[in-house]
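In this section we walk through a basic example: taking a raw amino acid sequence and producing a predicted 3D structure, encoded as discrete structure tokens. The instruction is simple. Fold the sequence below.
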Amino acid sequence: MIRSLGDKTPKIAETAFVSEAAYVIGEVEIGEHSSVWPGAVIRADFGSIKIGENTAVEDNCVIHSGTLSNPEYREELVIGDNVHIGHGAVLNCRKIGNKVLIGMNATILHDTEIGDSCIIAAGCLVKQEAKIPDGSFVAGVPGRVMSKATREQLWWVEEAPEIYKELLEKYKEEGR
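The resulting token sequence is shown next.
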């Protein structure tokens, strides 16, 4: 379901795919060739959410804008290009850079910023207000920078955008 909230209406690129079983509300912008899969919730009621190009929001993810430090302040959440957000991830942060993999069931808390070319491991909990430098591999609860992200780990953000582009085109063609 795609719906407005007050005068804020989602803007979704013509080439993007949003499953009819996803929920997108408010001041959301979804870029070219990006995809939002069944069960995902993208809720922009405390601030805007901008999702770049070639970004996949897999099944059952929750993306919500806002901040704990000042709930009355309208915070923008920006997710870059070529980002892969794994099944069941929860994001309530400020920024996800370009070419980032957020692993399945990872949680990114308020006011956090993730740099470019990062890997956030499955099940990781990135603490509130964390600043993750470019090229980091983060794992654990709480999440810690373990090392630099390797080329092997970055496969998902290098190769998956083209795979998901083909998949979303197939879904769009078949009207699903």
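Looking at the output, two observations stand out. The mean pLDDT is 93. The first strand starts at residue 2 and ends at 3. In the next section we compare this with other chains.
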